[in-house]
Amino acid sequence: MSTRNIAAVIVFSIVAVFFIFTALLMHPFGVPDESDMDDYIIDNTQEETGANNGVTAVVFDYRGFDTLGEATVLFTAVAGVIMIFRRLKND
User: Fold this and answer.
1) Which of 9, 28, 71, 87 has the fewest CB atoms within 10 Å, counting from its CB?
2) Distance from C-alpha of 43 to C-alpha of 54, rounded to nearest angstrom
3) Please, which residues have CB within 8 angstroms of residue 60's CB and are 6 or more apart in sequence?
4) How many structural domains is the chain composed of?
5) What's this model's pTM, rounded to 2 decimal places?
6) d(Cα 66, Cα 34) in Å, to the nearest integer?
7) Assign residue 50 a region: left if phi > 0, alpha if psi is -120 to 50, beta otherwise?
8) HSE of 5, CA atoms in CB hemisphere, 13 A
C-alpha cells in the first residue's frame, strides 16, 4: 500500500469519525428548542440589522459566518472535483 493510499485512509477515517460524532450529538429531529429565537428575530430584525426583509437579515447578518462556511465547503467541493477530473484527463 502506498503512502498516498495510507494518507487517504487516515483522512477518510478522521472524517468518518467526525460525521459519526456529529450525528450522535445532533438535536433530535422534530423536537423544538426551548428558546424563542424566531420571536426574537421577528421583533428585533429592523432595529439590529436595518434590513426590511427578515430572511435576508437571518442569512446575511445573523448567520453570516454560517453562510460563509457553506460557501467555503461548496468551493472546496468544486475545487476537488476539478482536480479529480484534471487528473483523470492527464492519465
Assistant:
1) 28
2) 10
3) 51, 67
4) 1
5) 0.41
6) 22
7) left
8) 2
Q: Which domain holds residue 31?
A: 3-90
Amino acid at 63: R
CB 41 within 8 A of CB 58: yes
Could you report the per-residue pLDDT of 72-83, keeping only the tens digit for each? 999 999 999 998
Amino acid code (one letter) for 48:
E
Q: How many CB atoms lie within 10 A of CB 42?
A: 11
Which long-range contacts link 84-87 to residues 24+ away (Cβ below 8 Å)?
none
What does the DSSP 8-state code read for residue 28? P
CA pair distance 88, 74, nearest whole angstrom? 21
Distance CA(71)–CA(59), nearest Å, equals 12
Q: What is the pLDDT of residues 54-75, one digit of tens each?
A: 888 888 887 877 888 888 999 9
